[in-house]
Amino acid sequence: MARPPMLPGIRAFLTHCEYNHFHNKTTVYNNADLFVIIRQVILFMVISREKLRSISRYTFYLLFLTAPVFNIFRFDLYEGYFVVFGQPWTLGLQSTEFQCVDTATQVRNLLLNFILPVIVLVVFSILAAWKYGRIYCGWLCPHFSVVETINALMLKQLGRVTLWEKKPAEKKQFIAWLLVLGLCIIIAFIWSFTLLSYLLPPKALALDLYHFELSLGAIIALLVLTSVLTFDFFFARHLFCKYGCSYGMLQSFAWMSNSKAMVISFDKSRANLCQSCDNECDKSCPMRLSVRGIKRAKFPCTQCGICLDTCDEVQEKAQNGEPRLINWVSNKEAVAVDRHAASFDIKRLKKSK
Fold this sequence. Notes:
The chain is mainly alpha-helical. The chain contains 16 helices and five strands. It folds into three domains: 1-46, no CATH class; 56-89 and 133-245, no CATH class; 259-353, no CATH class.
């Protein structure tokens, strides 16, 4: 019997077992497969995927807000160099240092302290995106965390997560809009102050703000940044992620170049179970994507896995004993997700004859 495909996670494994049991099928695993399964079971007992993503998002968001405060990373605009973990990162190119070393030492300092780390970071980022897609966006990005937060508030208060969707008649629109706008302004101001503190000394900036003694340049920067970010959070959000984020686009292009990369797959053999579902997986997607479509239709997918949780909830409420219809897949199974539609239809017609 052929070796079964490697499963992307413990939930996928459980889903696989449920499906086999429901359809009276048997799968044989070798020792390597069993080792991976046991390891995933142990990891799942410690922490689930949903909790892991929440921890990674909140930790990185907190790091984004506090990095300049604790001198973890920022650029000192007055001194003209980066500060990394409390230490000046001058690359050995400061005027006083520059005059005391020869050209070879200057080139070596630039290569080892700047160019090489940047190359390693870029290569690592591209490789991660090539294998997993926009994994940074869904699991770390502070902007995407704001997208999910505001989406959740809009869904609760307005019954929709974007301005472009049909509004429910029973919702009280005016008060709800004020709440959403207020949250957008608050988050935008916090972000503006944080971004400014990456360039100016954070403690001095905070004291000037507290005593209303900010310089004219700082006031203009805060007003402009707060206005732009409020517009983004209130009107754009996922649209910026789709079309305006250069790093997100880079990840998507790297992901699309790998036909075997991790992707959400839809089990078409059980598509009839979707008849009682009102596209809940699509509605839950923060990027408003067609979750069950081909890979090209999910170009900006952030691999957040929210659609998987939604499908689990729908199937649980249906109480039909079936596992969810969508799952993460990779390698050969992933290739089928982005098959050529025309050739797929021809093959299926040939089999049906």
